[in-house]
Amino acid sequence: MPGARACWVCGSQRLARRRSANHEGPLDSQAFAITDTRYGVTAAIDECADCGFLQCSELDDVTKFYEDLHDEAYEAGRPQRRLQLRRILDRVRRYRPEGRLLDIGAASGILVAEAQEMGYEAEGVEPSRWLQQKAVERGLPVRLGTFPAASSGGAFDVITLVDVIEHVTDPLCLLRAARAALAPDGILAVVTPDVRSVAARLLGWRWWHFRVAHVGYFDRATLALAARRAGFAPLAVHRPGWFFPADYLWDRAWKILGLAGARAPALLQRVTVPLNLRDSLLAILRPDEPTE
């Protein structure tokens, strides 16, 4: 990874501490759970004075935390996640409707399964042994490990990074490896939270994407800069929406307010709510000449 005191996006060494770490005790795998609800609990966050990127400079490679990760709640939300990822793939196939697809950070293979149903030759890579085994149990081609080492090799027509790039301490290395694995006319789809969104600015440090597992915080400008430096040109930028069980939203709303809420009515467990707070980015990128 780049020097710990250099910006992970632009390389500047002009970093200023924006926030001190406020997590309790040493970090462990459960602090990196996909469904972690300790909003506002983070490692120390620095801001780059040149490009504005926010990063947890004191963390090194966090892969070890994902290797031992278990997340039963993630699997419980599989029906809603299928809807989310199907919507993202509907966007993707406007630009590349078929071919080989690789999902990096595939978890239990939900996107891989949806992509297969849409006609892609899809596979995934996932570092969590528990999540990868869940994919295998469903007969899905998700390899255990990290990209690019664990991929099957060859050129891919589509690579997806859905809520992954904010979890890595060297995002340029990840993007450059993705570019090397793409076919010349392939596309990369990157989904990540937008730290300059209205929701993020209104909620401040209580924003739900400020949590330990997120070590880099992009906005539209810093994501575009990272893409250019890694050798990508933009095709489109969208604001993806999500789907949630209504009882999940009930519980999270009370947590955001910092209150002990009443138990959600049983009826809400059977209701799925589409929601788009426009605080995430979906960037569709194509290979181009890198800029340094």
List the defining traits of the structure above.
292 residues; Rossmann fold; 28% helix; globular; single chain; 4-stranded antiparallel β-sheet; alpha/beta; 7-stranded mixed β-sheet
Tell me what you see in this structure:
The structure is a single chain. The chain has 292 residues and is of the alpha/beta class. The chain has a single domain (15-241, 276-287), classed as Rossmann fold, CATH 3.40.50. 28% of the residues lie in helices and 24% in strands. The protein contains 9 helices and 13 strands. It has helices spanning 63-67, 72-76, 78-92, 110-117, 129-137, 171-181, 198-203, 220-230, 246-256; strands at 15-19, 45-48, 54-55, 100-104, 121-126, 142-144, 156-162, 182-193, 216-217, 232-238, 242-245, 272-275, 280-287. Helix 3 crosses helix 4 and helix 6 packs across helix 8 (220-230). It is globular. The mean pLDDT is 92.
**Low-confidence parts:** none
Number of strands: 13
CATH classification, class level: Alpha Beta
What's the number of domains? Answer: 1
SS content category: alpha/beta
**How far is it from the N-terminal to the C-terminal residue, by CA?**
17 Å
User: Which of globular, elongated, flat, extended, rod-shaped describes the shape?
Assistant: globular
| Average pLDDT taken over every residue | 92
| CATH homologous superfamily placement | Vaccinia Virus protein VP39
Name the beta content range: 15-25%
User: How do the strands of the widest beta sheet line up side by side?
Assistant: 6-5-4-7-8-13-10
Question: Can you name the CATH architecture?
Answer: 3-Layer(aba) Sandwich
Task: Indicate the radius of gyration in whole angstroms.
Answer: 18 Å
